[in-house]
Design brief:
The chain has 368 residues and is mainly alpha-helical. It has 15 helices and 8 strands. The strands form 4 sheets. A two-stranded antiparallel ribbon has the order 1-2. It has a two-stranded antiparallel ribbon with strand order 3-6.
Amino acid sequence: MDSHQKIEIIQIIIALCLLITTPTLTAADTTVTPDTLSRETSLQPVRSYRIPANLSFCGHPLPLKKRYCREMLDRELTIAAYNRAQVILWLKRAPRYFPLFSREIKALGLPEDLKFLAVAESSLIEDIHSRAGAAGLWQFMRHTGRRVGLRITPTIDERLDPLTSTRKALEYLKFLHEKFAAWPLALAAYNCGEKRVADAVSEQQTENYHALSLPSESERYLYRLAAIKLILSDPVAYGYKIEPRECYKPLQLDYIQLNLRGEVSLIDFALKLGLTYHEIKKLNPHLISKRLPQGKFNLSLPPGYKDQVAGVIKKLPRLSTKKAYYKVKRGDTLKKISRRFNISVTRLSRLNQLESSKILIGQRLRLQ
């Protein structure tokens, strides 16, 4: 049994448990209260959702008359629709991020359906990290992020900047579409890599996504996106009804592009503006250290503060960027080194751009 099969089994078990133990999460009741929890309820029958006769994604019609394709969509739709907690959060988060996605998609002349990609990748959690090292709304790996022009340094990770990462993700998807000349192949390449898809097309002598043998997750990818589109486009049909007042509204922010000659204290910057360090960090998840980075970057602030920024930064001293290093010795682990130098394992990994906890004897680790 591979990891994807295990994940699927776990998702099904969780979904069934939620269905049995949370009878109030229906089309009419999306908010659980002590009063609703105390009601006597009977077990509702589990239903199967109807697969539409026709469905397209990014203008590509899915060949649902073929048994394999129809069953693939059925699988993804059933798993997603019965993960009630996840879908409810998708519906609540979508109004915050979809306006941004739609605006940037329209500017590049791309299909509106691409907004569902971020739902599949990150569940619309802007600072999420995967075990494989992907990060942000669009789940860029480090090397791909750098390749498309995102800054990833010990002080800034633009994969976590909603605005910048959205623009770069859409530009990359446009490039992939131009390269493969078909959205299904472009989306598969986004999921598993350009080379893997190009090699599969060449070796198997077909450009038909539905006829290609790809990694399991990539073969499922288009159908997962289509399932998400179905649910979010008509949530009531799948048993969900979220009141507008329960949704997360777009944040009202001022966006500023800064270009600093040297690093400055983010804590001092926040306090001088009359904000807290916590507020600045929550509005700017891409600022991953306690410093404002050198060079160009975007800064998000509550309305009414941007006019003070230039004056505040001018008064703040530039911090030293001198680097301190430690040479790994026998028996060392990241945890031991982090304790010795009072630095978190997460920070240590980011400073040294480590994809795992593996370190080698003699390796030089940056400490600041």
